[in-house]
Every structure is written in structure tokens, then in C-alpha cells.
Amino acid sequence: MFRGLVAGTDALKVITDTRSEKVQELRRNPVCEISWYFANTREQFRIKARAEIFTQSTSLERSESWNKLSEQAKTQFFWPTPGQVCDPQQNPTQSLTNDFSQPPESFALLILQPFSVDHLQLKGSPQIRRLSVLEDAVWKAVAVNP
After folding, report:
1. pTM, entire model
2. How remote is the C-alpha of 122 from its chain's centroid?
3. CATH numbers and ranges of domains, the chain
4. What is the rounded CA–CA span in Å between residue 48 and residue 36?
């Protein structure tokens, strides 16, 4: 889940559960792609990035991200492992004795460093598409056919 940008950078903050399949995939290959579609402006963004996984208790960004979550959002990180078969006898929303003062091991912050953005504006005719690539710390964009 997108949680903002790292101050002063192009990096995106995303939180996830360390027990999810995507974390294992990112450990094997940190290159990922995310997409966003904004219905009001009819814009689509495909962002390629390198992910860095923060699970350690010494990460200030991770702790700050945890502290900004609602109690309801924090509770999900104490639920059973994502993707596992549900136990009908177990209710993940039951009130547990969770310590919300510190993020649990299941809470991870992903910092996504983008290196390529494909931006498509679907509003209008013709549609407008730009490819931007980060080269030597400078974003270079080129218009391409949609």
C-alpha cells in the first residue's frame, strides 16, 4: 500500500507484510513495476523501480510509517499469514493482546527507487504518452506513440 514519498526524493514508500509472496520475490529480484490509473484525469503511470526492503527495528522510516497507521491497519500485521488456507475456527479480527508500540516482524517498509516511468494521458485525441528514464541522476523524457 502506497504511503507517500521519501522526503526530498523520487522514492515511493510502500508498506507490506513480510510473510507475503511479493517480499520473497523482491528478495530474489528487487526490480519491480507498479501501475496507477487515475480515473478523474484518465492518466496511467507504469513505474519501474528497485525495491529496498526495511524490516529492521533500527529503520527510522519504517518506524515512522508504522506510527502513522491506524490501530485497525496495524492489527492486520498480527493476523494469520497471508495466502494461507483460512481456519474457519479462527477469527483474525478477534481482539488480541497486540503491542502496537513497535512494528512487528511481519511489518515491512519498501522504498521504491524509480528508474523508468511510462505516462499515458488517455484524455483527448490523440492520446499523449511519454517515456521517462533516469540516466546519471537526470530524468530524460521522450514523447512516443500511444
Report:
1. 0.86
2. 24
3. 2-78+101-144 (2.30.110.10)
4. 12
